[in-house]
Design a protein that fits this description.
Structural class: mainly alpha
Strand content: under 5%
Number of strands: 0
Largest sheet: none
Number of helices: 34
Helix content: 55-70%
Distance between the termini: 27 Å
């Protein structure tokens, strides 16, 4: 049904490198095709098979726009062979290569770009990471000392990275002195204790390391990350303090969304001994990867920070290729760019031994859903719940996949299982009641659907998704017309730019015989969702009842050309309407006085 919004999206909550922010903060590239390049797009297509001078450049631009960054980098490389003095192309290629984890190549081009006068800080960062990875620590420090122009570098990025480079040089005093700069800013205090603790831990200074780790534990304002839990519990086990590791994990036993990862970590802790436990950070490369991960995580929190985070997380994985949480972040960034196949490829690199492995399967399944490969998603999720029948997210997402596959009875079973795994009045329980109501409704069990949707409405405190779905369903069944109108109008006032909700409002006015308002809102919905078959069909009906027959026929013909994701449009009936038209509609009876207050909210429109 068109009124449904993905449960995964509800529950979990820039094309690459196209921004032109301050050069000292963000890499500069420009991916908008010029008018000349647009006109030459057909040339670019053939150039991908037969690259020439300009053809290779244009093929790179087209690949770049298509987010095929590996191909873009290769074509730009061919173009640079023809035009080695092209400074703009040099700046573009090292950024793209870094985003594809081709760091040694990126460093090579960054050095060439520096010789052409490029002062972008990312040249120094990429070169420094490559040098550190190859043990060239003095050169890495020299590059990091060139960073400047913005406190983000001098007070945050440089100290984090340089402290671990000094650790690689075996200079613990210099490493601690460098990381101390973070302690000057209250906003970086937790980050300071985390990295200072890891540095002291790396050098075997257990007493000092424990002070930093426990400063994190005892700070009530600090939100403990999963990585922090991994690092600290690993330290406790190696120092024969297993009981503290267990007690720390027990503090987070109610974190439902991360329960699977926490359970896996707890199992490792329960079976671990100091003799069979190796340090998670056993090289300076691992520490540098942590620093780069911390930078990426912080950059993702700022406006337009995804581009920067993308580069730093790729550098982190280069420093430590087995860093599963960094791979998770990279995949998440790729997903935010709608690069789902690429995200799946990154997930495939994560070892089954990782605490996040089941979580990875769930996230991969979500990507398959977005690619509309429901069978692949079903196989993955069934594997998860087979290994762990009480996996909350696995059951919830499997219910969603079954519903999308039309297997409503199975969907109801898995939604019910997910609901049983959480507190009935939990703040997120409404989402499952909402999903369950949709599955019941699509399975033809309206009484059960209505009951579940009403419960979702109460628990969600009238969330507009639930208002819209329940109101629209009431209209379909010809019941509670006044309540349906009130719900849909309220949903619209909360989300006036949602095409599906606007369609519901237009269709509600159609059902009560107000065809002028129906046309107004259905036209608005059609502008928002021009490829939606159900909205187009609704608009055609409204045009016909409003005496605009030619426009109605145009909309119905448009409907036939589109895929119906709602499963509501009867294409044979649409063909009949085109051929024979429609009889005069019979409006649903309603009490106007009962919806007068709700209608006031629409008066300005």
């Amino acid at each position: 049904m068109a009124k449904y919004v993905s449960i995964v999206v509800v529950f979990l909550s820039l094309i690459i490198f196209n921004s032109c922010a301050e050069k000292n903060i963000q890499p500069q590239t420009q991916i908008t095709l010029s008018e000349k390049e647009v006109k030459a797009s057909s040339t670019a297509q053939s150039a991908q098979n037969h690259p020439t001078d300009y053809g290779a450049y244009l093929a790179g631009r087209v690949a770049h726009l298509r987010q095929d960054f590996n191909a873009a980098a290769d074509y730009y490389g061919i173009s640079l062979q023809k035009d080695p003095n092209n400074a703009e192309l040099l700046e573009r290629i090292y950024v793209i290569l870094a985003s594809e984890r081709r760091i040694p190549e990126a460093a090579k081009f960054a050095k060439q770009s520096q010789k052409k006068g490029d002062s972008n800080n990312f040249t120094h960062i990429i070169i420094a990471v490559d040098d550190a990875k190859n043990g060239n620590y003095p050169q890495a420090i020299a590059s990091l000392k060139k960073l400047g122009g913005n406190p983000v570098y001098t007070k945050f990025i440089t100290p984090l990275m340089a402290s671990w480079v000094y650790a690689g040089m075996g200079n613990s005093d210099k490493a601690i002195e460098t990381i101390n700069i973070l302690n000057e800013d209250k906003g970086f205090k937790s980050l300071y204790h985390f990295h200072a603790g890891m540095i002291e831990d790396y050098f075997g200074h257990n007493q000092e390391a424990q002070k930093h780790y426990e400063a994190l534990i005892n700070d009530e304002k600090n939100e403990m990350s999963f990585r922090t839990l991994q690092i600290i519990t690993n330290f406790y086990i190696r120092t024969d303090q297993k009981e503290k590791a267990t007690a720390l994990l027990n503090r987070f036993s109610n974190e439902l969304l991360f329960l699977d990862m926490l359970q896996n970590l707890s199992q490792k802790v329960n079976t671990a001994t100091s003799e069979n436990t190796e340090a998670l950070i056993d090289s300076a490369d691992d520490g540098l990867a942590e620093a780069l991960f911390s930078i990426a995580a912080n950059m993702r929190q700022i406006t337009s920070g995804t581009d920067i985070a993308h580069i730093f997380i790729c550098l982190s994985i280069y420093a430590n290729p087995h860093y599963d949480l960094a791979q998770l972040m990279l995949a998440d960034i790729l997903e935010s760019r709608e690069m789902y196949k690429e995200a799946i490829a990154v997930y495939d690199e994560i070892s089954p031994d990782s605490e996040s492995y089941n979580t990875v399967q769930i996230k991969k399944a979500a990507d398959y859903v977005l690619l509309q490969d429901y069978k692949a998603a079903e196989i993955l999720l069934k594997g998860v719940v087979s290994n762990d029948p009480n996996n909350f997210q696995g059951n919830l997402d499997l219910g969603d996949v079954m519903r999308l596959s039309g297997k409503y009875t199975d969907a109801i079973e898995y939604y019910g299982k997910a609901l049983s795994l959480m507190e009935p009045n939990s703040s997120n329980a409404w989402v499952i009641y909402y999903a369950l109501g949709i599955a019941y409704e699509q399975n033809g069990d309206w009484n059960l659907a209505e009951s579940a949707l009403k419960q979702a409405l109460i628990l969600s405190q009238n969330h507009y998704y639930v208002q819209n779905y329940l109101g629209y369903s009431w209209l379909k069944h010809g019941t509670n017309i006044e309540d349906a109108m009130t719900l849909i109008i309220d949903a619209y006032t909360q989300a006036p730019n949602d095409g599906h909700i606007t369609d519901s409002l237009g269709w509600a006015f159609y059902q009560i015989g107000d065809y002028d308002k129906a046309v107004y809102y259905l036209e608005k919905a059609s502008e928002t969702e021009p490829a939606n078959a159900l909205i187009s069909d609704h608009l055609g009906d409204a045009y016909w009842q409003n005496g605009r027959q030619s426009e109605a026929i145009f909309q119905w013909n448009h409907t036939l050309k589109m895929k119906d994701d709602s499963n509501e449009v009867d294409m044979k009936k649409v063909e009949e309407k085109i051929e024979k038209g429609m009889p005069k509609a019979q409006p649903l009876p309603y009490n106007k006085d009962e919806i007068a207050e709700a209608l006031k909210a629409l008066e300005e429109e």
